[in-house]
Write a sequence for this structure.
């Protein structure tokens, strides 16, 4: 077999991390795919040593697009419920003045507060999901704000169906993973910032 260029080696690494770490494919399946890409066995072994050293412990598999869409549906229904409750408590004259502001601020506050403080919204709680960073920790306030702002980008919901990652995840450096796996790997250490 031929020696692979540095660019090919980098592409192989990212390919393997995406398949093995983020998508949860078995090591054997990824090894076979890497062989089919032209990697030698020794290089594959070295690659997995590097990956396993970087990503210690059980893998955290990102939640699928169906679960992500369900999260959005549940969260949207809850935000609508909150909006109706607020509108029913204020007069119709005040409602007309503040409706646009409430429609914009209510979802922003909901996502920022729940994802920053708890690491999960109601939708994520119901589906057993959680927002984390690449290191397995809860996202910081800037990551949550970036996630929230890009939810307002008109085409963000369409990114659920295009590409490997949703736009607000990619731009904020966050992942939505299974909560039980996260607890088994990181537990309260991630909340306190220790690993």
């Amino acid at each position: 077999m031929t020696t692979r260029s540095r660019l090919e080696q980098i592409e192989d690494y990212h390919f393997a991390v995406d398949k093995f770490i983020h998508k949860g494919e078995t090591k054997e399946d990824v090894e076979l795919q890497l062989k089919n890409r032209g990697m030698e066995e020794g290089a594959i072994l070295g690659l997995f040593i590097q990956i396993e050293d970087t990503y210690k412990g059980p893998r955290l598999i990102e939640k699928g697009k169906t679960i992500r869409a369900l999260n959005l549906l549940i969260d949207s229904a809850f935000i609508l419920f909150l909006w109706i409750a607020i509108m029913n408590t204020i007069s119709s004259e005040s409602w007309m003045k503040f409706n646009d502001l409430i429609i914009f601020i209510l979802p922003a506050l909901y996502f920022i507060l729940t994802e920053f403080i708890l690491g999960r919204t109601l939708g994520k709680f119901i589906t057993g999901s959680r927002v984390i960073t690449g290191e397995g920790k809860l996202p910081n306030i800037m990551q949550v704000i970036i996630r929230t702002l890009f939810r307002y980008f008109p085409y963000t919901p369409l990114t659920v169906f295009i590409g490997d990652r949703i736009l607000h995840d990619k731009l904020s450096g966050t992942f939505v993973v299974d909560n039980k796996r996260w607890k088994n790997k990181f537990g309260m250490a991630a909340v306190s910032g220790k690993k």
In short: The chain has two domains: 6-54, 65-192. The two ends are 40 Å apart (CA to CA). Strands lie at 129-133, 174-178.
